[in-house]
Amino acid sequence: MRKIEQRSAVCLLLCTALLLGSILFFLRFVVEGPRWASFSANRHLYGPGGTLAVGRVLDRDGDVLSYVNSDGRRAYYENSDVRRATLHAVGDLEGNVGTGALSAFADQLSGYDLLTGAYSPMGAGNDLYLTIDAHLNYVAHRAMAGRKGAAAVYNYQTGEILCMYSSPNFDPADPPVIDPEDPAYDGIYVNRFLQSTYPPGSVFKLVTLAAAIENLNDWDSRSFTCTGSTLVGGESVTCPAAHGELTVQDALAVSCNGFFASLAAELGGPVLSRYARQGGLTSSYSVSGLSSAKGSLTLESASDGEVGWAGVGQHRDLVNPCAVMVYMGAIARGGEAAVPQLVLETRSSLNFPLSFYLKKKTGTMLEPGTAGILAELMAENVQRSYGPERFPNMDICAKSGTAEVGGDQTPHAWFTGFLRDSGAPYAFVVVIENGGSGSAAAGAVAADILNALVNGD
Fold this sequence. Notes:
- This protein has helices spanning 2-37, 80-85, 87-90, 101-104, 106-109, 134-144, 192-195, 205-215, 248-254, 257-267, 269-278, 304-311, 321-332, 368-386, 438-454; strands at residues 56-58, 64-68, 74-76, 127-130, 149-155, 161-167, 224-226, 229-232, 235-238, 244-246, 286-287, 290-291, 343-347, 396-403, 412-419, 426-432.
- It is of the alpha+beta class.
- The strands form five sheets. A five-stranded mixed sheet has the order 3-2-1-4-13, with no helix packed on it.
- Helix 8 (205-215) packs across helix 11 (269-278) and helix 9 crosses helix 14 (368-386).
């Protein structure tokens, strides 16, 4: 009798384990099924060359960026410049561009469903609409003129990325033979907007100023005399020129290193690190499932001089362009912003909507009052330093950055900011590797993109 009871208990445990395992498998099947089905070895979905043979990728306006032609081969938009401009959003035939829709969103393109699996009676897969406007990417491509870097614009209210451009790139319909030793192809598969980090230069002064506004009671009544070189913790922090007597507004408009390095040293490394972390500059974002690179601010055991240099965006500071753009969106929205998204919607071959994408917000990155002050100072920057005539019909707030990268290399150029307009709630970022002046080089690219977006130029 005892043996029977023991065997019954064992059978009951086995049955329970089987039931729980079945439930777990079913749940994983429901959640992970599309990804399993879109595995590259699935011959129902992939052609002989390993290229996804179903589904179309479209931009937000319905322009077809990639499709399967009548021969069953993957094809692209007819204009080669548009193909290059959207490479890192659409993807290449061999799947080397990890952020491209053909690789990253193959499960949504596949047409998979729980009833028929990867086999679709229509045989066409799904239509995946990206949030980007291919024309804006084209404008960015022409403005970048072959220089390495990234440019992006997004709606800080909804999170939709309207422009996501990275260079270098290539024509996916006519890919070159890429020599990994050729510097022209360095990082060509990397989406620099999502996957790269750079020293931020003077763009980081906005973080330093935000920390000062919230921690130093007399921040707005201070004056500073810039002689072109300022001792901070025994280290010389230099400016391109002697700026003379400065208020806070003056210091941001002329981007005085001495002023902001002194502020950073007074605030201290822990405070500066906390504001960079709170601002999302050392975190990663999930952009429709694509992870952005994390920035870093290495200030443990840093001297006052090193903290000073970090406060002006040098030292060993590194930031990701996507994170900088979101921080601009947070300033624009009074302290928080929408998390970026790249997928607008998925529709079946019969034009039936299949997926709904929930908009997400960041946490509080800075206090609403602080955000308002920064916005006003950034708007003044445009009036005093960047030229409002470059941005017609726009209430624009911006900050440039010229980030030293060491040696004999030309600095990286940054230009970032946002529009204060309920009808055009856009934040933007441009970084050009070894581009020189942030305002001149990166600012010109930003102006071209924003003019195309706002004025239709």
